Amino acid sequence: MEKTRSTLFQGLSFPEEIGENAFMTLYKWADMHNLPPGQVLAREDSPEQNAFYVLHGAIQISKKVNGQDVQVAVLGRGEWIESGSLFRRQTMSYTATALEPSVVMTITPTALGALHSEDQLAILKYINDFSQKRIDSLTTQLATLQTRNTQLTDNLFYQRLHLKTDASKSKIVQSIIKKVPRLPAFAKNLALNALGDDYSPTQLSEIIKHDPALVGMILKTINSPTYGFHSKISDIHRAIVLLGSDQISRLLIAEGVRKVMPDSPIFHELHVHTLAISQIAFLIAVKSGNKNPAQVATVGLVHALGEAVIEYIKEHNPSYAEFFNDLDSAQLGAMLFKEWDFPEVLRRCVEYQFYPEFSRPENIPTDILETVTICYLSHCCYDRFRCSQETKPASPFFDEYMALMPWKGLNLEEMIEHHLMPQIIKKLPSYPAVLRKLFKK
Asked: Model's pTM, two decimal places?
C-alpha cells in the first residue's frame, strides 16, 4: 500500500497550509476509484456531495447542449473536480468521464471530517481557490468567444447583404418585373383588406357572400381534390361556417396567386409551401396575441412570390437562368409588390423575411419585427412537420427570436406541442388535404 501511495503522490505539490500529512489522511479515509477509459465518475443532473482529486490519468468534463455532449475541459493529475458542496447534496451540472486509465480520490464528508478543523478549512479554501482560478480562466475564454462570435455575426451579415446581386439596379430585372401578370383584382382587394388595421372577418364574409363570382370560386375550390371533403358543399354559408371567414379569405388570395403563375410542379410545391406557412403563421399570431393575425397570415401567403418570379423568369427566359439564380428572391418579391402598388408594410416584411437566418433581431425594423419573427418561426415549424425526426433550426439566432414570443424558454418541439398542435387538431378537418397530410405526420 505504501509503495502505491508513494507512486500516486509522487510529484504532486501540496498547499503549504495543508501539507502532505493531511493529504495522506485524506487518502486513508477517501474512496479510491480506478477508472478504465469511458467510465463515468459523476453524471450531469445526478445528486452528488463529494469532491474529486485526480491522482493519475485524464478526466473529461462535458455538458449536454441541445442534446449533444460538449467537452468543456480535460482535467489531469493534481486537479480538482468539485461537485459544488461537501455539506449537502447538489445536482451535478456536468459529467466527468475517464479519457484514459485514471485514478481518482473521492473526498467524502466523512473523509473531510477525519481532518483537524484547520486542515478542513485549508482543504476547502484550496478547493475554492482552485475553482475561482477555473472560473477566471473560463471567463477569459468566454470573453474571447463572444468577441469572435460578434465578428463572425457581423461578417455573416455583411456577406449576405453586400455580396448579393442588387436586382433593383438591373434594368433587365425591372423590365421583366413589369411583365409579370398582376394579381386578379379580387385577390388584391382581399389582401389589402387583410393587411389593413381595420380588417373585419365578418364584414369580409358579407362582401364575399354577395359576389357570385367569388362564391362560385370558393365552392369550386373546396369541392375539388385540393380539399378532398367527403360530401359536396353547395352552400356558401356552410362553407364559411366550415372554414371560417379568415380561411375563406386566404383561400381566395391563394387562388388569385395561383392564377398568375404557370401550372407546373415547381409552382405547385411553392403553392403548398405558402398555404402551410400562412396557416401556421396565423395560429402563432393568434396564440401570441398579435393584434392582426390576418395580416401575418397574408404575408405568409405571398412571401414566396419572389421565388415564383425567379422560376417564372427562368421558364420564359432560359438564357437568363444562371443570372437569376444569384438574385435575392426576397428583394424580387418586394420589387413585385411595389410594382403592384401594395402597402409598404407588406413589401418590407417580404424584403426582411430571411434576416432571422443570418442576423440578430435588432437588424430588423421594430415595426415589422413581430411579423417577420412569426413568419420565420412558421418556417421552422414547417420544416419540422416535413421531417419525421427532431431537427434543430438552422439559424444560430433561433433562441433570440424565440425570446420575442410570450413563451420564451421553450424549444421548437415544445412550442409545437403546447401552442400549435392543440389548435391544428381542432381545425384539421377544415384544412386542404395536403395540409391535413402534412400535420398528421
From this structure: 0.70
